[in-house]
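Lecture 7 notes: from sequence to structure.

We start with a single chain of 506 residues. Read the sequence below before looking at the structure.
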Amino acid sequence: MEICEKNRCTGCQACMNICPMDAISFHEDLKGFLYPEVSEKCVGCNACQRVCPRNTGVQLNQREPVVYAAFTKNKATRKNSSSGGMFTELAKSVLEKGGIIYASKLSEDCKSVVFDSCNTVEDLAKFQGSKYVQSQPGLIFRQVKETLLTGREVLFIGVPCQVDGLKKYLNKEYSNLLVVDIICHGVPSPKLWRDYCTYLEEINGAKAVNISYRYKKPNWTRFSLKVDFDNNKSYVRSKFDDPYLISFLKEISMRENCYSCEYTSTYRTGDITLADFWGYHSYDFKMRNTEKGISLVMINTEKGQIAFENIKSEIVFQERTIKEAIGGNRSLKEPWKKNPVSEEFWHEYIQGEGMKKAFEEYDLASSSDYIRDMRINEKLGTLLTLLMEQSWHPESMTVSRKRLELASVKVYLDEHYTGKIALDDLSEHFFINKFYLSKIFKETYGTTVNNYLISKRITRAKQLLRFTDMTVDEVGAAVGMGDANYFSRMFRKVEGISPREYRKQW
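Now the structure, written as tokens:
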């Protein structure tokens, strides 16, 4: 059962929360993004399809937003926040009324971002700072609803698709709910970050204990990635030097739906919208120290206006224009475009060397070694060729990208040949027309997808027949050909003899 089209799925997990049978779980694809899978417990109620924002259309506030530049007066809060500390002030206001906060935080091992709750000001610290990894809501929507039904005030903050997913799940307005959406650049792969963090741990010989994706060094606008380890070492690299930040900020490693995001508008999903106020300019004395961080605040509803009024005594603020907000935040106007090297990156990554290779290549820049310099020049030459091809022959880029995708298809077949694989499944999984896939696969590899699978299975079967004591039927099942007659027939077709005859030769 398909809940929505894979290339449009945001991973908001509203479908998992709404399912009355708990038949939906989320699993990583080859790129490490989470997508829903429906188990046999499904009773066909279609609640998941009805709650999915992709099926029902995005829900945006239609009020023209009021725009502010703002930051907290609390110096410590501002220092520990990504920009101006506005989330913390909003959260404190809710907590003072006995409310509860739902937001994303780093896991204890620093390798994933998950949703959690808190009901004390002291616990707010775990939510501070940007997280450049797709967060996992899990069953947090259910918890939000349970809290709302008790009458307690709730503040929920997430990216627009998560906020929309929560609203669709709740399916009614709650006077005690304040929702805040974050202007989103896009979301990188959870697995990509997990692998990168593990790699940094390996080369530093210690476990990561704290991550700052927006470490304000040298300053707010030229921030760095900072990883602290339990041996008192720290890794710090600017957004211009760290390969993980580069892959994200250059639109290489984002989720597929981010490149066609339907929430890139000045009309927002939340009562309040928060972001960095990039491009802010003012000669107002109180607002001049921008390098410590300035928040963009957009008030989208009456409820949001009331919440903002409640914290005015704790902040420095100045009303600005929506035009200025758009100027520094492209995501208020249109989605970010996929980088032409994205498919090449994912191809390398799926093969098990993408991020590590990138890290090592960026590390080379500090070396004077002649051989390493030559390798750098080789990479730069490859990139220059790609860029020139894009500029001079844009029509060829489509074919190049498709062939890179095809390499990923082959890797997938090599890893999953023992399972049931149909051409329609491959087409859906890799977003390639099945007829085009068949054509270009044969052109590239000299055989059809089905014949490649058969060849792969027979090759493995020969190894098992020769080097194990498994029965012929067991071998057939192990290579994805559970029907004994079919296995024998295919084996004879490829090798000219039966599996039993082949085994007798050895």
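The two ends are 46 Å apart (CA to CA). Keep this in mind for problem set 3.
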